[in-house]
From TrEMBL:
The keyword Flavoprotein applies. GO terms for biological process: nitrate assimilation. This is Rieske domain-containing protein. The lineage of its organism: Eukaryota, Sar, Stramenopiles, Oomycota, Peronosporomycetes. It holds the Pfam family NIR_SIR_ferr. Its cofactor is FAD; [2Fe-2S] cluster. Residues 906-1014 form the Rieske domain. GO terms for molecular function: 2 iron, 2 sulfur cluster binding; flavin adenine dinucleotide binding; heme binding; metal ion binding; NADP binding; nitrite reductase [NAD(P)H] activity. Residues 882-897 have a biased composition (Low complexity). Keywords: 2Fe-2S, FAD, Flavoprotein, Heme, Iron, Iron-sulfur, Metal-binding, Nitrate assimilation, Oxidoreductase. Residues 876-897 are annotated as: Disordered. Belongs to the nitrite and sulfite reductase 4Fe-4S domain family. It comes from Phytophthora pseudosyringae. It comes from the Eukaryota.
Length: 1053
């Protein structure tokens, strides 16, 4: 180890992602500790992940963006200077002159000098703002730093409140249609401010996408988010006044956009080369610090990295090349001699992104004008599934030269590796299979098929081999440990699904047991529990928990929000009883609990079944009458149905009584069950039709309706190969031929679209039904929890060939069993809503409160486009306490405010029979909503029941839903899972068990002589903190400030 006298001082100017990466790598490679490290950053906080800036709008926590904990610098013996700007280098005396920033800096202490032996400039880039009139007006922003985002949020909140109070609707204009522009547009959209994108060119993402790929992205942005894109527009002037700020934007073509409240420039970056310029370093003609292949500047011992440089006239605006530079320079600082140095070869500009929910990727040479050899291109364009792929091959088909992927980037790693190895490893598979995948549906490419050199994490340049080696050498068994040791998932996070697959594959290959257990309460998978319940014929959750739970003899083991809905689904698949009868109700998840889809407002949506999309005029009129009577928002769904939004829980039975009387039945949009079987008009109307697609779709939908499965099921029937019903994007699909139907299985749309795989061709309709019966029951019997048929087919050993053997040849000898179970489910079907409105006991479950027939308004509604929708305004998200208005960076509980009051009495809330066993219910106390819960303290029947009480409002998003949550335990601590976002709260002390700094107001509860009592302060004391009206918007004002989440907890519920 070097002594203090011989140590060299390395100063890094710039505390961003690349500067931090260099420090991290140098500490790793400098095993002899020959360097003393100093980091200088202009921002008042330590480095954070700029790639995740958009997520900042969701949580407003800088800590969640930081790349290392606060003590990282001290632990690594690095001196960190924040809020300091480097002004100039004195390369002769080897000192850097700096300026302290901030209003509280004494005038005489503003400037200081830092000596160095070597200095690394990593000052990054700044947002490019065109020199136009009006750019200094209030309301003009860039999208680059936390400070920028805070300014945008504050401005957006003001506009949202103005509009909520009846003010004029105004727009935010985002200038720039590239990556930053789209991120900025999404962020402002999430603030409930209307957005328009202004793009000088004719397509979005013009550096990554061609016209057809950009069209797919454009349609997603317009259709999903309602964001307008103005093409071919160059901004000439920002119009406004000092008093009002931005008011309008004038374009060079003479057009003008009025009613503008905000302008965000996202038109590119410019290298931060001011320090180099002030120090006399050589700059590139178009800006950027000139460096050679060893990242050296024009003066000795001065280096530069990241976005501030120009390397062979290229400035990189991506983090991956910056990380590669940082790694290269750190290795060169610690190599034995100058001859051992490595050169920076240039950065990989391949990109894999997710913009507004749409996956986008590009690699290699993907524009024909830049390809320097003869080539051929292959294109797959499916606008129905929102997938576009274009690959460029050498003329002989032996090399992959580049490609564009939109909507599905699942093959990005595999394809980009083929490109990187194009000169060393000629292609083996034909280009059409590389584009579309091999025929036969064998489950597709898995991580096992990737070579060790395949890059898994492009942000940190981590290969599959790196991850596999770390797993083996360090005996890693948990995903979090792999993430920490390998430094994966710390950038964009998009690599984590593949990292998880690699971990599981390595553990399985090593003979280690891969933990497939359902949750902390059961050491079995869903498939194993299905078999146990089937063989033992259990009928209750308590029986299964007592006999097969991990903690069979622990009376404090109650289950959780994972195992309870799973058991409910298995019971329904095997026994098909009503899901709300008996103790089944308390097992149901958010939507099944009230046979409707829980919305972000706490209201529900209603979706009656419209089998095959066929509906009479009378039924359409009936839907309209119901919607008008209950003031419901109506929308046509992608499954050929009508969705009615905004129903109150207590109104659901009345709504469904009218619908049932009109001939409708439950559409099960709320369940993990069959949703729809979509159809085209087939031979009924279409001149191309081969079979009666509508009739067959109606038959299939009515056959499989209500059947519970591991995940939702969707079907489709197309009358010819034109495929108007999109049958190949469904869990099962039938495409008519002149001989019958081609049957496809294992497809899905959604986040990762997948084409279904051909199971059988030209199958007569009766045989097609038999194959589908067997396929669906085999899936229900063997799939994991929340596993779609596509993933199930991928994981099925033998893939589609094995499935064919099982359902077509009966290779396992179980087809008779599968058909018998399907026949039972079909024969015992009953409309769940029809049974509810026939049962006063079931209808009582839908009352808003258990102790009164009074109803309370929980949501403020406004009229938009002639329909009623809930009012959502942007709020200061730091205020997420349980009721107070205290401003803080983290939530503050009101527990001490209420619980410490001496004036408390036991208040009666009615019979214990009003509340579901192992469940909860809402009660009204004054103007405040409380939730009362009970948990049976025994696994072998109810020996003792514990009662708990808390506020009914979830402090995370202030929706009044906690009483509807699933109760259970976490390591013996009684808890409730919020049905909205699955945050868990301790029922005893109210603290959040999901990692958030949140807390419930809890109260002591008990049962005496069959009556439930809660120890409470007077109503005025409780109402002062928890009155519902305090958190609901009113006409003319804004609601209480609340954090609005966009990211649920990590549960696919």
């Amino acid at each position: 180890m070097a002594d203090a006298a011989t140590k060299e001082v390395v100063v890094v100017v710039g505390n961003g992602m690349v500067g931090h990466r260099f420090l991290e790598r140098l500490r790793k490679y400098d095993t002899s500790k020959r360097y003393t490290l100093v980091s200088i950053g202009e921002e008042p906080v330590q480095h954070y992940n700029r790639m995740l800036l958009t997520e900042y709008f969701e949580h407003l926590s800088i800590d969640k963006l930081k790349l290392a904990p606060p003590n990282w610098y001290a632990e690594n013996e690095i001196e960190l200077m924040t809020n300091a700007q480097a002004l100039a280098l004195d390369t002769e005396s080897r000192k850097v002159r700096c300026q302290r920033l901030g209003a509280d800096v004494p005038e005489g202490d503003a400037q200081f000098q830092v000596p160095y032996d070597r200095i690394v400039i990593a000052t990054g880039a700044s947002a490019l703002v065109p020199r136009l009139p009006g750019t200094n007006l209030r309301g003009v922003f860039v999208y680059r730093s936390i400070a920028d985002l805070n300014s945008i949020i504050a401005h957006g909140e003001i506009q949202a409140k103005i509009e909520a109070a009846g003010g004029v609707k105004k727009y935010a204009l985002v200038v720039g249609g590239g990556l930053l522009g789209l991120e900025a547009a999404k962020a402002v959209h999430d603030l409930n401010v209307s957005v328009r994108i202004v793009n000088r060119g004719t397509r979005l993402m013009s550096r990554q996408l061609d016209a057809d790929g950009a069209k797919v992205l454009h349609n997603e942005i317009v259709n999903k988010f309602g964001i307008d894109v103005l093409y071919g527009k160059s901004t000439q002037e920002i119009i406004g006044s000092e008093e009002n700020g931005v008011e309008a934007v004038q374009f060079t073509n003479g057009e003008r956009v009025d009613d503008v409240c905000m302008v965000i420039f996202a038109t590119g970056i410019k290298p931060r080369d001011e320090l180099a310029h002030a120090s006399g370093l050589e700059l590139a003609k178009r800006g950027g610090i000139l460096i050679n292949d060893y990242l050296e500047c024009s003066e000795p011992d001065v280096y530069a990295l990241g976005e501030c440089i120009s390397h062979h006239n290229v400035t990189y605006g991506l983090v991956a090349p910056g990380y590669e530079m940082a790694d290269t320079l750190a290795k060169n600082f610690t190599c034995g001699s100058p001859e051992d140095r490595i050169a920076f070869p240039g950065g990989d500009i391949s990109t894999k992104l997710k913009l507004m929910g749409m996956e986008v990727g590009s690699f290699g040479d993907y524009f024909p004008e830049f390809i320097t050899e003869p080539f051929e291109e292959l294109t797959y364009n499916n606008p129905l599934e929102k997938v576009y792929k274009k690959l460029f091959f050498s003329a002989d088909g032996r090399k992959l030269l580049g490609g564009i992927l939109v909507g599905d980037t699942s093959d990005f790693v595999r394809l980009s590796l083929m490109y990187k190895q194009k000169d060393a490893k000629p292609l083996v598979d034909p280009p059409n299979e590389i584009l579309l995948g091999k025929r036969g549906g064998d489950g597709g490419n898995t991580v096992l098929d990737l070579p060790d050199e395949a890059q898994v994490c492009s942000c940190n340049n981590i290969s599959k081999g790196d991850i596999c080696q770390a797993i083996k050498e360090k005996n890693l068994t948990k995903l979090g440990d792999v993430k920490k040791v390998c430094n994966v998932g710390t950038g964009c996070g998009g690599c984590m699904p593949m990292v998880k697959d690699i971990l599981e594959a390595e553990l399985a290959a090593a003979g280690a047991e891969v933990d497939k257990s359902l949750c902390e309460h059961f050491a079995y998978s869903r498939q194993e529990l299905y078999q146990i319940i089937q063989v033992e014929q259990y009928a209750t959750f308590a029986q299964v928990l007592a006999q097969h739970g991990r903690k069979q003899h622990d009376p404090r083991s109650y289950g959780c929000e994972v195992c309870k809905p799973t058991m409910a689904s298995i019971f329904a698949s095997l026994q098909n009883g009503h899901i709300l009868k008996g103790d089944r109700a308390a097992l149901q998840d958010s939507n099944d609990r009230f046979l409707a889809n829980l919305q972000k407002s706490g209201q529900f949506s209603v979706v009656p079944r419209v089998a095959g999309g066929e509906i009479t005029a009378d039924k359409l009129i009936a839907l309209g009458q119901v919607a008008k009577k209950f003031d419901l928002y109506t929308k046509i769904t992608g499954g050929q149905r009508v969705d009615l939004f905004g129903a109150q829980k207590q109104d659901l039975p009345a709504i469904w009584r009218l619908l049932v009387d009109a001939g409708f039945e439950s559409g099960h949009a709320y369940g993990k069950s069959l949703r729809t079987v979509k159809s085209c008009v087939g031979t009924t109307w279409c001149r191309y039709g081969q079979q009666d697609a509508v009739g067959f779709a109606i038959f299939l939908e009515n056959r499989y309706r209500g059947i519970r499965s591991p995940h939702k099921l969707k079907g489709g029937v197309s009358g010819c190969t034109r495929e108007c019903a999109e049958a190949r994007s469904k869990d099962f699909g039938c495409i008519a031929t002149d001989q019958g139907y081609n049957i496809y299985v294992g497809g899905n749309g959604g986040t990762n679209p997948r084409h279904a795989t051909l199971l059988a061709s030209d199958v007569p309709q009766e045989l097609a039904v038999q194959y589908l019966d067997r396929y669906i029951m085999y899936y229900i019997m063997t799939a994991d929890r929340l596993q779609r048929t596509s993933k199930w087919l991928d994981a099925l050993e033998g893939g589609i060939e094995q499935l064919r053997r099982v359902v077509m040849v009966d290779s396992l000898g179980i087809c008779a069993t599968l058909e018998k179970q399907m026949s039972f489910l079909v024969g015992t079907y009953e409309c769940e809503w029809k049974k509810v409105i026939e049962s006063p006991e079931l209808m009582a479950q839908f009352a808003q409160f258990k102790n009164t027939s009074e109803n309370q308004k929980e949501v403020h509604m406004q009229t938009v486009r002639d329909q009623r929708i809930p009012t959502f305004v942007a709020h200061a998200k730091g205020r997420t306490d349980s009721g107070t208005g205290t401003e803080s960076s983290s939530p503050v509980s009101t527990t001490s405010v209420l619980s410490d009051l001496d004036d408390r009495d036991w208040v009666s809330f009615g019979s214990k029979d009003l509340f579901d066993v192992n469940g909860g219910g809402a009660v009204l106390y004054g103007e405040s909503q409380l939730a009362i819960f009970n948990i049976a303290e025994s696994c072998n029947g109810i020996d003792r029941v514990s009662w708990y009480a808390a506020q009914n409002m979830c402090p995370f998003d202030r929706s009044f839903v906690l009483a509807q949550g699933i109760v259970g335990d976490l390591d013996g601590r009684p808890k409730v899972a919020c049905p909205m976002h699955k945050r868990n709260y301790d029922l005893a002390d109210g603290c959040c068990l999901s990692g958030d700094d949140l807390r419930l107001q809890t109260f002591e509860a008990k049962e005496e002589d069959g009556v439930i009592y809660v120890l409470l302060p007077p109503t005025d004391a409780v109402d002062a903190r928890l009155a519902t009206s305090k958190f609901v918007a009113k006409d003319g004002d804004a609601p209480a400030e609340v954090e609005v989440t966009k990211t649920p907890a990590a549960l696919d519920w």
